[in-house]
Amino acid sequence: MLIRIISAFALSVFLTHTAVAEMSLKGVSVPDKVTFSGHTMVLNGAGVRSRFFVDAYVAALYLPEPSTDALGILGSGSPLDIRVTIISDLVTGERFAESALDGFVRSTHGDLGPIREQVDTMIKTFRSALKKGDTFDLVYNPDTGTEIYRNGELQVTVDGLEFRSAMAGIWLSDDPVQSSLRDDMLGL
Q1: Calpha distance 30→47 (Å, rounded)
Q2: Are strands 28-29 and 80-86 parallel, antiparallel or unpaired?
Q3: What domains can be seen in the chain, in order of their start residue?
Q4: Model pTM score
Q5: What is the pLDDT of residues 61-120, one digit of tens each?
Q6: Are 30 and 148 contacting, i.e. CB atoms less than 8 angstroms apart?
Q7: pLDDT tens readout for residues 114-134
Q8: What share of the chain is helix, strand, coil (3-state, %, to 5)?
Q9: What gap in Å lies between CA 81 and CA 60, rounded to an integer?
Q10: Is the dihedral of CA 169, 149, 87, 65 positive or negative?
């Protein structure tokens, strides 16, 4: 009997992991791993950002190893990728930039001072015209800083470990842009 229970548990863990590996959300394919600047990261979790009853984007978190420890992820200097894919025509560059700025304010509890210049640099990359299907990869590379890619093309690199923590905190902090999305990205 105990062997059947253990076998059933192992099978359920395997099937759960397989489902994550083949994830698709709102028509967006979410790969099980990504590689940037020589760092391969695995899918930790993904979810949909909704605002005012509109599904705005799909966000996925990639890490070197899966983790449910938000504080550990935020405090780490390890590589990470937060992939954001726009899924609504209602998301404009200006709205996306303002939402990101609000996320930084929440993540830092209103203390943007030490990273204000880096935040402004990132926000500028979001202000241009957006369309449904555009994808941003916010990749922390310990060798260079946070590399911001749009549709696979490097836009800018923003330095600083403090910036990395605040940027990831938009989704993972104790005051995230959406609690259910945080849980989904952490695989909870």
Answers
A1: 10
A2: unpaired
A3: 25-185 (3.50.70.10)
A4: 0.85
A5: 999 999 999 999 999 999 999 999 999 999 999 999 999 999 999 999 999 999 999 999
A6: no
A7: 999 999 999 999 988 899 999
A8: 40, 30, 30
A9: 8
A10: negative
